[in-house]
Amino acid sequence: MENRKPYQLVSREWKPEDTVIELNGVKIGESLMMVAGPCAIENEEQIFTISEFLSKLGIKFLRGGAYKPRTSPYSFQGLKTEGLVLMRKAADHFGMAVVTEIMSMDKLDELCEYADMLQVGTRNMQNYPLLRALGKINKPILLKRGMSSTIEEWLLAAEYILAGGNSKVVLCERGIRTFENATRNTLDLSAVALVKELSHLPVIVDPSQATGVRNLVPPMSVAAIAAGADGLIVEVHNQPAEALSDGEQSLYLDQFADMLNPLRQAAKIHNKVFDFDLPKVNSNAFAN
Ligand code: PEP
Ligand code: MN
Predict the structure, then answer these.
(1) 274 assigned to some structural domain
(2) How many CB atoms lie within 10 A of CB 221?
(3) pLDDT band at 282 (very low <50, low <70, confident <90, very high)
């Protein structure tokens, strides 16, 4: 039968086996990935406190925005270069990888210098020149779903990156716009199960942007893993009430730690293990 799908390289028909992306000792797509950290880097004490706590739990991927896409031009826009420097310093200190957002092409060189994985935010999912530029680099990309994008549009956005030559793409469902306004967005978990059928790419979930409500993050995280997600990206903060962005959806540090056991249970449904339960890579292991 003719393949009527408008995308090709991202499809299961093109590549039946799951894509596995290696980063910081983790085989993303094989082990479940946990990315955690603040919405935005705010100062040295904040990022060191959070990353120290996370690294003690075995978390290997540190998130945090340095260039923040804010709805209002008057909101905190991120520490920019200073934020990248602080995040890199903390990540290196605690053996973590840096995941941070790229908002525009003119920052590509700078972000490649500081980050290990570049996040394309919901507002930029259809920034085609940016997607094409990311197709030309050799770093994994975290491609969020546009808040009003269909699954097909999302997969076509990923196709831009693969078509450019970069096949290291992790998809991220982060909630979509619906009539419901009790939550910030509506988490579309059916998209996770469907995209796992349609595509070989890993799919993770962002329950923080999806709900906008701190106490909904643990149950939706467990639900995402039960639905077959390949991991999570979660906002945590040492002082959520003081956060310069997204404090109301950021978990307290202890709340994040408490969620790991239920997540381990959910992972067992699929015979999977989270990366935080894998031994830490010793970068000197092969040195002599
Ligand atoms: C974020 O991760 O802080 C963020 C801005 O995400 P999104 O693009 O999904 O809104
Ligand atoms: Mn945020």
Answers:
(1) no
(2) 27
(3) low
Find the CATH number of the domain harbouring 38: 3.20.20.70
Q: Compute the distance from residue 16 Cα to the ligand 2 centre, in Å.
A: 33
pTM for the full model? 0.96
Q: What was the pLDDT predicted at 285?
A: 43
How does DSSP classify residue 137?
A: S
For residues 244 and 40, is the Cβ–Cβ distance under 8 A? yes
In a domain, 6, yes or no: no
Number of structural domains found in the chain? 1
The answer on pLDDT for 286 being more than 70 is: no
Domain membership of residue 7 (yes or no) is no
221-277, pLDDT tens digit by residue? 999 999 999 999 999 999 999 999 999 999 999 999 999 999 999 999 999 999 999
pLDDT number for residue 4? 78
Testing ligand 1's pocket by substitution, the residue of 67, 76, 122 carrying the most ligand atoms inside 8 A of its CB is 122
245 CB under 6 A from ligand 1? no
Would you say 22 and 16 are in contact if contact means Cβ atoms under 8 Å apart?
no
Q: Which domain holds residue 252?
A: 21-267
In the structure, ligand 2 is a single-atom ion and the residues with CB under 5 Å from it are 39, 246
11 domain residue, yes or no = no
Query: Is there an atom of ligand 1 within 6 Å of 144 CB?
Result: yes
Token couple for 157 = 């956005």
Surface-to-core class of residue 240, CB atoms within 10 Å of its CB (0-12 exposed, 13-18 middle, 19+ buried): buried
Q: Tell me, in angstroms, the distance from the centre of ligand 1 to residue 13's CA.
A: 30
